Amino acid sequence: MKTLKSMRLHIGIFGKTNVGKSSFLNKITGQDMSIVSDIAGTTTDVVEKSMELLPVGPVTFLDTAGLDDKTLLSGQRIEKTLKIINRTDIAVVICDFNGIDEYEKDLFKKFDELKIPYLVVINKCDIEQISGEKLSEIVNYTDKILITSAVSDEKIIFKFKDMLVKMLPEDFINSPKIAGDLVNEGDTVILVIPIDKEAPKGRIILPQVQTIRDLLDSNCLSYVVKETELDAAIKNLKTPPALVVTDSQAFKTVSEIVPQEIPLTSFSILFARLKGDLDAFVQGADAIASLNDGDRVLILESCTHHAIEDDIGTVKIPALLRKKTGKELTIEHYSGHDFPDITGYKLIIHCGACMTNRREILSRILLANAAGIPITNYGVVISYCLGILPRAISIFRK
Ligand code: SF4
User: Fold this and answer.
1) Looking at the chain, which residues constitute the CATH 3.40.50.11420 domain(s)?
2) Rounded to 5 degrees, what angle do the CA atoms 131, 134, 136 make?
3) pLDDT tens per residue across span 31-49
4) pTM
5) Which fold has domain 188-270+389-397?
6) Ligand 1: which residue has its CA nearest to atom 7?
7) What confidence tens digit (pLDDT) does each residue in 304-354 have?
8) What residues contact 341, with CB distance under 8 A and at least 6 apart?
9) What distance in angstroms lies between residue 241's CA and the mean position of ligand 1's atoms?
10) Which residue of 56, 187, 351, 356 could cross-link 183, Cys pair, CB 3.0 to 4.6 Å?
11) Which residues lie with the beta carbon below 6 Å from any ligand 1 atom?
12) Residues 5-173, CATH architecture
């Protein structure tokens, strides 16, 4: 239960109102996590439930309201449900003996666009069996079909897990490394963590903790210092470090201290690769060179947080961008899981995404690509603006 939410498999449960989504989920999780009722539209919001689903591993179920809900505020529910798709690793579409119609077909189309694997559960077979004709219509879209009854099928959980295991994304089965694959066992890696106004009191932030853990798992030697002690740390070592990783905020100072022959990157760039697509983000940064006066740039953060005086998204990156381009840019901000209307933007700059899952960032990249808008991330933009991007990504090219 202590597995980070961002590292759990997110399973989205979709389906029309009252096909038995909540009953299905209760049967799988063994808990009454949603209000189950015969009255259409009882599930009023997205309910999240995390559990250990052996042998799959840590999962979070996202139980959505019915997209066809006609009740009050259903417009908001539908919008919310569509946004849940963006963070779904595997989608489960539940229908009953009535088969599928345009609603399910729209969902399948959306899953295909976003490359989300899906399976169909045909529920309520204790009441009526689906006809051969209706079943063939579903087979046209997928062969991953489970015909069952959340009420009477005692083997439902085993059948469901069997199907799920065969659909697990590769990056869930073999969790990608953060930095451990860039160096060898026994190598020393220096991690530079400035203790400034942005550093939380008494602790270090999640991406830094995760990187230390990754290096421990990879049998490396981690050496954690502030930028003020970095020079002494390098001189103290008998052999130079195999890699230096810095917080983006100290990139400039650190790049001046670390000798050119020692590879250097940032936590944010490591997470751009882990949580998204580093190549896409590096390509996206090219758009900075062609920004003009009046162009709109969107800074997109995955969660809301209290912005401090020197906040990276609202203060530092806008200042760096304006300085680098010399243009009068219109820089706007958006925080949260929702994906806003991106029409009219010339560039999207995403945060490090430490609190979100990889699927959500990949979906955002796909949506930005589909709209023809370049997308990049904080670490890439900072190193680009400081003129050290080639150095910061050279370790990955190797
Ligand atoms: S998810 Fe983004 S905005 Fe939220 S703490 Fe992590 S980097 Fe910052």
Assistant:
1) 188-270+389-397
2) 105
3) 654 444 344 444 445 678 8
4) 0.77
5) Rossmann fold (3.40.50)
6) 352
7) 766 666 788 889 999 999 999 999 999 999 988 778 889 999 999 999 888
8) none
9) 28
10) 187
11) 301-303, 305, 351-356
12) 3-Layer(aba) Sandwich (3.40)
